[in-house]
Automatic annotation (TrEMBL), chains A, B:
Source taxonomy: Bacteria, Pseudomonadati, Thermodesulfobacteriota, Desulfovibrionia, Desulfovibrionales
Function: Catalyzes the NADPH-dependent formation of L-aspartate-semialdehyde (L-ASA) by the reductive dephosphorylation of L-aspartyl-4-phosphate.
Active site (UniProt): 130 (acyl-thioester intermediate), 243 (proton acceptor)
Coiled-coil regions listed in the entry: none
Name of the protein in its database record: Aspartate-semialdehyde dehydrogenase
Family matches, as Gene3D superfamilies: Dihydrodipicolinate Reductase, domain 2 (3.30.360.10), NAD(P)-binding Rossmann-like Domain (3.40.50.720)
Residues reported to bind substrate: 157, 236
Keywords: Amino-acid biosynthesis, Diaminopimelate biosynthesis, Lysine biosynthesis, Methionine biosynthesis, NADP, Oxidoreductase, Threonine biosynthesis
Enzyme class: oxidoreductase
Classification via InterPro entries: Asp_semialdehyde_DH, Asp_semialdehyde_DH_beta, NAD(P)-bd_dom_sf, Semialdehyde_DH_NAD-bd, Semialdhyde_DH_dimer_dom
Taxonomic source organism: Taurinivorans muris
Length: 347, 347
């Protein structure tokens, strides 16, 4: 273990940034110093770190001098601009935005799934999209037993995926509606209260959203298998915390529901939660605040020979973002990979 | 047109029963008399019918003397018990429960899809499940162009599907949570406020819910095609009105998204609502109170050769229940089928 280990959290005042600080603290991450960085607007404010508080410093190109690991959660623009400077300072970046995910130089890592990919890192490691993380934590152990050929996924995503402002919008709209006031949309294009929006991130030329294509492309990259076919419909629902997913898969060989349960019962990061007769199945309210990815409603898909349906739920801010990023940082330490080979690679 | 046409609404005080009365009125259904029937508990109360009110009468085995058409929406038990008595009185029953749907003697009808099946009716016509109705209104025109081989559907179903008590439970729980009170569950097995429950109707031996198997079995019966394979995940979401559905289909021949849009643009009962660049896609808030089934987010599924994804939304109380039942009654009149061949068939 390093005698001195300086960790920076970029975007420390946001929903995910705060969760990152809380996760670093609660997991006893062996940092000797934690720097909370954010835009100039937030500089000077304080954010909680355990029982303590950290004074937020302004993010600049020079913020990473002496920093060993920087965990970014401040949007794609900030990551694109500042991660190369961090690497230039010799700092390893774990980035939660989508900016570097499909860059061939950057491993895209879920520690339970493909920690080995960290060995080839070049200074920036990308944290996958929240919807992808929980799906692949549940699917990897099955893929290892019989390769998955196709995935059809529909998501039920919480407003916390949009950050504090998403949480605020849902809360405000509910209050407005319950007080007879016409609700206003400022964050989402339509009302989210008591509504479902099949629209997360921007629309692309193929009429899929960027969020949907993230689930396709990130799955191929993380599984290192371009043959897995994925099609996704991503939907924002009026839930504060935790994303739920209805996932239909087709495997090469038959896996029974019973076999799938046995596989998932001991899978890393998975909490098998599947006893329908007792009304036990994963729920957003069960997963919120938890580290595990909950899997249940496992049943054979009778419409094809080798199909399975399952219901996968995880705390999108935690395993979907902060926890996964901190777990990557932990793996970097464990595998002795906190070093940058070419400081100018991204400049 | 009949000189005298007596129509009874059974379960007139429930959410769907009230919507049936409202639909009969607003569509100028040519009834000369409307009888509102309900359990003895509600007898004597009044329900609105246009600007007027009807006094609710107690449902008994003799309630159907002189009644031409009875529309039932009072649960499977009531339908099982009383529909045979209605038929025995010479009354044609349109039943909204699941009691008679899979009975070979009873056509299962969506007027836009299989009105022809009414010709073989024996006194009881079943109204399909709400989730099935809206899905098949959208899929039938595509199925007619190229047969659908497989459907993978995930639903986002409103609490009004559970009736007034579902609406009340969501509203109460939201108020409790916003007032710092621990919410109580009385209708659903878990909290529905800000949560998604992958559990609608009871669990069956194959670990699917009855709601999920309705979508499978009713699709086969309505399309008169046992070869269409359907797999469903049915989920209750914190929305008051309108069910949304993420539907993935595989057709025999390729249908492009553009072709699908052209087909659906002129399909009966369908409102094509698909312009993602303008943030235009079906929403629960758009469909609520409307007759049409809204279809959008149409895109080719790149994971298989002949696949399409779409997002289908309709008012579950209206097209999913009351409107479809009234449309069946209208078709019965139009096709001169308001008569019972064998009054004792169901006794």
């Amino acid at each position: 273990m390093k005698e001195k280990l300086v960790v920076a959290v970029v975007g420390a005042t946001g929903a995910v940034g705060r969760e990152m600080l809380s996760t670093l603290y609660s997991r006893n991450f062996p940092a000797t110093t934690i720097k909370a960085l954010a835009s100039s607007r937030s500089a000077g404010t304080r954010v909680p770190y355990g029982d303590d508080e950290l004074v937020v410093e302004e993010l600049t190109e020079n913020s990473f001098e002496g920093v060993d690991i920087a965990i970014f959660s401040a949007g794609g623009g900030t990551s694109t601009q500042f991660a190369p400077h961090a690497v230039k300072s010799g700092c390893v970046v774990v980035d939660n935005s989508s900016a570097w995910r499909m860059d061939e130089r950057c491993p895209l890592v879920i520690p339970e799934v493909n920690a080995h990919a960290l060995k080839k890192h070049n200074g920036i490691i990308a944290n996958p999209n929240c919807s992808t993380i929980q799906m692949l934590v549940a699917l990897k152990p099955i893929h290892d037993v019989s390769p998955i050929k196709r995935v059809v996924v529909s998501t039920y995503q919480a407003v916390s995926g949009t950050g504090q402002k998403g949480i605020q919008e849902l809360e405000t709209q509910v209050r407005q509606l319950f007080n007879g006031i016409e609700p206003e949309n400022t964050v989402y294009p339509h009302r989210i209260a008591f509504n479902c929006l099949p629209h997360i991130d921007v629309f692309l030329d193929n009429d899929y959203t960027k969020e949907e294509m993230k689930m396709v492309n990130e799955t191929n990259k993380i599984f290192e298998d371009p043959n897995i076919k994925v099609t996704a419909t991503c939907v924002r629902v009026p839930v504060f915390y935790s994303h739920s997913e209805a996932v239909n898969i087709e495997t090469e060989k038959k896996i029974t529901a019973k076999e799938a349960r046995a596989i998932l019962a001991t899978a890393p990061g998975v909490q098998l939660y599947d006893n329908p007769k007792e009304n036990m199945y994963p729920l957003a309210t069960v997963a919120a605040g938890e580290d595990a990815t909950f899997v249940g409603r496992i049943r054979e898909d009778e419409s094809i020979a080798n199909g399975l349906n399952m219901w996968i739920v995880a705390d999108n801010v935690r395993k979907g973002a902060a926890l996964n990023a901190v777990q990557i940082a932990e793996k970097l330490l464990e595998m002795d990979l906190v070093c940058v080979k070419d400081k100018n690679l991204f400049m």
